[in-house]
């Protein structure tokens, strides 16, 4: 199914399959599996079995399922799997706004809507581009490793800012934030790369958060507490600002 065009009128073929494991995680799974095999060889079953289950858990963490991304220039898709824990008006990070000397304009330093998506260790941790366009900035900031679900994590934790710009100048910024367990942000792209909506742009190891900064005049089409799927869930429609209410049940 990967690379195949599918639509809302029945075109395309699809079916369930085991998700692949991203190469970034295969080495970790193999290391733990090798330790499990060594423990089993020496009949250390009390160690071998937990290590075997840990190896399966590591491979599951780095799973990389195929996603079907809607191709519509009006849509902003979720860059991460997880739960929406914050929706609030804030100014974008300074690194996405300030003149960095490259000649590429940044976001306007004025309040916009930020959507925070928290990823637990059970979520897929491959992050994807919310729109099609050119990567204008990738800025890595070292920092702390406090709980990624806290508001201060956006300003204090280790993080990486990414700015994507469409051909018409519309920009969407997002920030990958490390958490208590996460200890490395792995980028797949660099400044100047052209990406498609839903394309894989990086991952964060072992639990984290992604903040998305919507363009001015755009409000979310998702609710607090809602679950998102990277590359598939529509976060917003550019230029639209609807009030949507929901109920937990």
Automatic annotation (TrEMBL):
<feature type="transmembrane region" description="Helical">
    <location>
        <begin position="28"/>
        <end position="61"/>
    </location>
</feature>
<feature type="site" description="Cleavage (non-hydrolytic); by autocatalysis">
    <location>
        <begin position="207"/>
        <end position="208"/>
    </location>
</feature>
<dbReference type="Pfam" id="PF02666">
    <property type="entry name" value="PS_Dcarbxylase"/>
</dbReference>
<keyword id="KW-0456">Lyase</keyword>
<protein>
    <recommendedName>
        <fullName>Phosphatidylserine decarboxylase proenzyme</fullName>
        <ecNumber>4.1.1.65</ecNumber>
    </recommendedName>
</protein>
<dbReference type="GO" id="GO:0004609">
    <property type="term" value="F:phosphatidylserine decarboxylase activity"/>
</dbReference>
<keyword id="KW-1133">Transmembrane helix</keyword>
<keyword id="KW-0594">Phospholipid biosynthesis</keyword>
<keyword id="KW-0444">Lipid biosynthesis</keyword>
<comment type="similarity">
    <text>Belongs to the phosphatidylserine decarboxylase family. PSD-A subfamily.</text>
</comment>
<dbReference type="InterPro" id="IPR003817">
    <property type="entry name" value="PS_Dcarbxylase"/>
</dbReference>
<comment type="pathway">
    <text>Phospholipid metabolism; phosphatidylethanolamine biosynthesis; phosphatidylethanolamine from CDP-diacylglycerol: step 2/2.</text>
</comment>
<keyword id="KW-0812">Transmembrane</keyword>
<keyword id="KW-0865">Zymogen</keyword>
<dbReference type="GO" id="GO:0005886">
    <property type="term" value="C:plasma membrane"/>
</dbReference>
<dbReference type="InterPro" id="IPR033175">
    <property type="entry name" value="PSD-A"/>
</dbReference>
<comment type="subunit">
    <text>Heterodimer of a large membrane-associated beta subunit and a small pyruvoyl-containing alpha subunit.</text>
</comment>
<keyword id="KW-0443">Lipid metabolism</keyword>
<comment type="function">
    <text>Catalyzes the formation of phosphatidylethanolamine (PtdEtn) from phosphatidylserine (PtdSer).</text>
</comment>
<feature type="active site" description="Schiff-base intermediate with substrate; via pyruvic acid">
    <location>
        <position position="208"/>
    </location>
</feature>
<keyword id="KW-1208">Phospholipid metabolism</keyword>
<keyword id="KW-1003">Cell membrane</keyword>
<keyword id="KW-0472">Membrane</keyword>
<feature type="modified residue" description="Pyruvic acid (Ser); by autocatalysis">
    <location>
        <position position="208"/>
    </location>
</feature>
<keyword id="KW-0210">Decarboxylase</keyword>
<dbReference type="GO" id="GO:0006646">
    <property type="term" value="P:phosphatidylethanolamine biosynthetic process"/>
</dbReference>
<keyword id="KW-0670">Pyruvate</keyword>
């Amino acid at each position: 199914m990967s690379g195949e065009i599918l639509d809302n009128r029945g075109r395309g073929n699809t079916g369930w399959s085991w998700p692949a494991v991203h190469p970034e995680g295969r080495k970790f799974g193999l290391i733990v599996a090798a330790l499990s095999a060594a423990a089993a060889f020496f009949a250390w079953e009390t160690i071998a079995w937990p290590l075997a289950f840990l190896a399966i858990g590591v491979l599951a963490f780095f799973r990389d399922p195929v996603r079907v991304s809607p191709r519509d220039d009006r849509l902003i898709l979720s860059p991460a799997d997880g739960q929406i824990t914050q929706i609030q008006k804030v100014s974008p990070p300074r690194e996405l706004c300030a003149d960095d000397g490259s000649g590429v304009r940044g976001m306007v330093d004025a309040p916009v809507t930020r959507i925070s998506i928290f990823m637990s260790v059970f979520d897929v941790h491959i992050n994807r581009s919310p729109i099609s366009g050119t990567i204008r900035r990738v800025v890595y900031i070292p920092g702390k490793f406090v709980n990624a679900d806290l508001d201060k994590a956006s300003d204090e934790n280790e993080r990486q800012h990414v700015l994507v710009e469409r051909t018409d100048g519309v920009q969407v910024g997002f920030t990958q934030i490390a958490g208590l367990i996460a200890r490395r942000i792995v980028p797949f792209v660099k400044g100047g790369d052209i990406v498609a909506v839903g394309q894989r742009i990086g991952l964060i190891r072992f639990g984290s958060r992604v903040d998305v900064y919507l363009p001015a005049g755009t409000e979310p089409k998702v609710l607090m507490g809602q679950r998102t799927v990277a590359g598939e869930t529509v976060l917003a429609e550019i230029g639209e600002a609807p009030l949507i209410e929901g109920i937990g049940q």
